[in-house]
């Protein structure tokens, strides 16, 4: 039997949250989606709140993953310990609130979701994501499907991770850069991959940020706190088709809903 897994790119700003609420259920119905993972760390531009996470769950997300802005809003810390359906990068360290791995029901099967953060050109003090992946995969009974959201800047690091995990997990996708890549594929040993899902939020922005504000920063001015761009929004991501007989991927398809 084939299962369809939807991975949704970084939700940016409150307009992105609202667009997710408008579109996600329709997308899930249109593509017969069985399970949905949404990266939500930019709902407040930098970080998210409990209310943002709950809005994403209400919109249809089964799991919300995070990244380098996990603690951009420190009030999320307690919620990370309370809610099993929101994950922060597992390699942020054992002392950080929350967890980076969870196993969830999907019909008759179980799905493992792993959230990791990269270390190349991205400011954080994380542990080695490759060794963290090894530890998590070895630490418990493996579910039928395993999904990995690798929140990283460098495409080289993301590709290396995909090759490292090829055949060991069902799918690896990249988040963080907010720009969808055109390299979706099934790797030789059966792992689905794309370097970046893109983003969910304003169409006419610089990674979702007001263009005037972003340009001002590059000109050397003082742009101030990030503001979301105005106007219409998009929902970007990818659909991974997984085979329950093997636990691996048979196809990857990008989506862009405007």
Note down, in words, how this protein is organized.
The model has no long low-confidence stretch (mean pLDDT 96). The protein is an alpha/beta fold and 258 residues long. α1 runs parallel beside α2. It is globular, with a radius of gyration of 17 Å. Helix content is 25%, strand content 29%.
Topology:
Layout lengths: L1 E7 L1 E2 L1 H18 L4 E5 L10 H10 L3 E3 L10 H7 L3 E2 L13 E6 L2 E9 L11 H10 L6 E7 L3 H11 L5 E5 L9 E2 L5 E3 L4 E4 L8 H8 L14 E11 L4 E10 L1
Parallel strand pairs: 1-3, 2-12, 3-4, 4-5, 7-8, 8-9, 9-11
Antiparallel strand pairs: 1-13, 6-7, 10-11, 12-13, 13-14
Helix pairs in contact: 1-2
The residue ranges in which pLDDT falls below 50 over 5 or more consecutive positions are: none
Averaged pLDDT: 96
Gross geometry: globular
Give the helices and strands as they follow along the chain. Answer: EEHEHEHEEEHEHEEEEHEE
Count the strands?
14
Helical run tally: 6
Radius of gyration: 17 Å
The major sheet is characterized as: 8 strands, mixed
Task: Label the structural class.
Answer: alpha/beta
Estimate what percentage of residues fall within beta strands. 25-35%
Helical content class: 10-25%
Distance between the termini: 31 Å
Task: Describe what is shown at a glance.
The protein is of the alpha/beta class. Helix content is 25%, strand content 29%. It has six helices and 14 strands.
Which characteristics define this entry?
eight-stranded mixed sheet, 25% helix, alpha/beta, globular, 258 residues
